[in-house]
Amino acid sequence: MRNIILSVLGVVLIIGAIFIGKEIANSKKKQRPVPAKVVKTVFTDTVVNSTVPIIISTNGNLVAKRRVELYSEVQGVFRSTGKLFRPGQEYKQGQTLIKVDATEYYASVQSAKSVLYNSIAAIMPDLRLDFPEVFPKWQNYLNGFNLDKTTPKLPEMTSEKENYFITGRGIVTNYYTVKNLEQRLSKFNIRAPFSGILTEALVTEGSLIRNGQKLGEYIDPTVYEMEVALGKSYANLLKVGETVALNNLEKTETFTGKVSRVNGSIDATTQTINAYIEVKSNDLKEGMYLEANLNAKSEANAIEVSRSLVLDGNRIFVVRDSILDIIDVNPVYFSDTKAVLKDVPNGTVILSKPVPGAYAGMSVKPYKTTTESASTNASSEN
Predict the structure, then answer these.
(1) Record's SUPFAM superfamilies (predicted)?
(2) Same domain, 252 and 214
(3) Torsional sign, CA 191, 197, 200, 206
């Protein structure tokens, strides 16, 4: 009897354990929640076609419009002019940039001038006797002859006899010899052709300067030019005198320039055309890197959007009844950040900012500003 009771209790315990185990297992199972339908809020714009100016962005370095490379045409020792010949040194128009010692050469010029003076003085008695009518003008020429000044021009010869007589005495030959020497003497002093600044100095005071040696570079720091290369499709759109907006790379400074020249030929290698933009400002320096925005042309019945909104195949997203759709467009110009599109009907609601993971048929909710929401509520109350 006792064994029967123990057997029954064992069976009951086993059945109870199985039942309790199932209850515990079932209690750990969680119901998977039903995903809520997510409607993304998007930024939109309503299309209003208008005339869109196409602005071409390009860049380049500034170069002084007026610049001179200084070379020596004579040989001698570089003498001080009172100003150090160093980069950054400013000069006024007409001031001496470089002075080469010309003591020896100056003596040879004075010698040639003396020969000319003596040759004219030697014929004066003959002129008094044979050509009394021209004697006064030659006498006046001698009286005005100064060895310390530039040789004056010979008197004009009014007759053939006078011409033969003067030329036969070698006076004309001596005169042009002197003028040639004086012309070369002037090259020992190099003067500033305009007010400007020295940007490169390759010699110093006391240096021996040789014929043909480069001495430095001199620029006018008030006017600069920037060379830019544009696609050949814009060759007929650029006009001389057109205003151009310029800015530095940091976008902190803006300048106004104008197209001063446009090259008449297209580069065969790059298929680009070079334009030159003139700009004036005291804040500019040669070599500065600037960006230029040229107004190439205007496109009628077009809109301008972010380039990131244009999909492959020239399509964009539109919003119709809170559902995204795709339409074809006709892009007429692309810049780095913008695109100019045509064939988009007026009143079409398009995305103004890209939506990650967007697809046709996606449910969206156009974003409304505070002002728009207030207007909507006021309309509902009325």
Answers:
(1) HlyD-like secretion proteins
(2) no
(3) positive
Report which of residues 305 and 13 the model is more confident about. 305
Closest among 259, 277, 104 to 185, alpha carbons compared: 104
**The sheet that has 214-219: what strands, in order across it?**
67-71, 214-219, 196-201, 90-91
Spatial distance between the Cα atoms of 143 and 114, rounded to a whole number of angstroms: 14
Q: Is 272 exposed, middle or buried (0-12, 13-18, 19+ CB in 10 A)?
A: middle
Report the run of H or E that residue 177 belongs to, with start and end: helix 171-185
pLDDT in tens, 103-124: 989 999 999 999 999 999 999 9
The three-point CA angle 230-235-239 to 5° equals 100
In this structure, is residue 35 part of a structural domain?
A: no
Look at the chain and report how many structural domains it folds into: 4
- 30 lies in a domain? no
DSSP assigned state of 156: P
Q: Residue count of the chain, please give it.
A: 382
Enumerate residues 6+ apart whose C-beta is below 8 A from 16: none
Tokens 């006024």 identify what position? 92
Q: Which domain holds residue 367?
A: 44-53+299-381
- Under DSSP, the state recorded for 380 is H
For residue 286, report the phi and psi dihedrals to the nearest 5 degrees. Answer: -65, 135
| pLDDT tens digits, 139-197 | 999 999 998 889 999 998 888 888 899 888 899 999 999 999 999 999 999 999 999 99
In a domain, 26, yes or no: no
Q: Are residues 245 and 344 in the same domain?
A: no
